Amino acid sequence: MPPLSANKYVQKIFFTLTGIAVVIIMGVLFFLLGLIFIRGAPVINLEFLTQAPRKGMTEGGIMPAIIGTLLLVAFAVAFALPVGLFGAIYLVEYAKEGRITRIINEAIENLNAVPSIVFGLFGLAFFVTFLGFGRSILSASLTLAMMILPTVMVTSVEALKAIPQSFREGSLALGASKWRTIQDVVLPEAFAGVLTGVILAIGRVAGETAPILFTGVVYYKYALPSSPFDQTMALTYHLFVLATESPDIAKTRPIQYGTALVLVGLVLLVDATAIYIRRNILSKRRW
Predict the structure, then answer these.
(1) What is the Cβ-side half-sphere exposure of residue 49, based on CA atoms within 13 angstroms?
(2) Mind listing the pLDDT tens digit for each residue in 96-119?
(3) 81 with 21, same domain?
(4) How many structural domains is the chain composed of?
(5) Domain CATH number, residue 160
(6) Each residue of 157-190: pLDDT tens digit?
(7) Can you give the pLDDT at residue 130?
């Protein structure tokens, strides 16, 4: 066993290394956010946020892209959350440890590792072509839901496992059924953890381009969508086209940074709202 002084020396080295790693990560983060803010803030105004694009997006605003992004996020989470939550309930509360459970867990892990472009091709083949939904908000949202389903399911499983078994036993001892126990005891306690998965899912959905590239978004659309079977604009795809296929990239560069700033701000706003709800729930339960 090495002397105590040597242990302290090793501990100090690793403490310094971890501190340096944190500084590097935070430095990169603030550099990126600062660059986007400095170059994008001059573009942000009321017209940019509330008007439709004009003249091939060289004038006007990005309001249809903002609405489209919010719709895609809302529908994707609405589709993925019930499936992921009920799947987690089955794995934690009903399924017995065995071969089937291991296969399901491995399938979830493998699904989480599939590249996003593969989900886009799957959405094109299945939702757009096979089911006949066409290139639409519905097809794009379902594709995104398939992509974030493993994240929602894994975080929900961990949230349910974190609930002490004594909670369940106490409810069952008082005469409640198993489902009543899950509904009234387990789920309320695990809800904050489930929201963590939703927060992670929102960040991934809002920042993806490949899955919606083939399934439902367009670069330029003046009118807002009127049904789930309409196509829509999205901030990520709009930014991608502006940066790669615009006839005058130099002219549209301020709009690129403005769009990126709005996208980052939108994700942060939605995540902050979900975090506030989660913390508010936890604080009320402590009372």
Answers:
(1) 11
(2) 887 888 888 888 888 888 888 999
(3) no
(4) 2
(5) 1.10.3720.10
(6) 988 988 888 888 888 888 888 888 888 888 888 8
(7) 93
pTM (predicted TM-score): 0.85
**Is there a single domain that holds both residue 101 and residue 212?**
yes
For 119-150, give one letter per residue: b (16+ CB within 10 A) or e.
Answer: bbbbbbebbbeeeebebbbbbbbbbbbbbbbb
Residues 6+ apart with CB under 8 A from 101: 91, 95
For residues 220 and 267, state if they share a domain: yes
154 and 59 co-located in one domain:
yes
Q: Looking only at Cα atoms, what is the longest distance across the chain?
A: 74
- 266 with 214, same domain: the answer is yes
**39 lies in which domain range?**
4-43
Same domain? 259 vs 203? yes
Residues 63 and 173 in one domain: yes
- The four Cα atoms 241, 247, 250, 251 give a dihedral, to 10 degrees, of -100
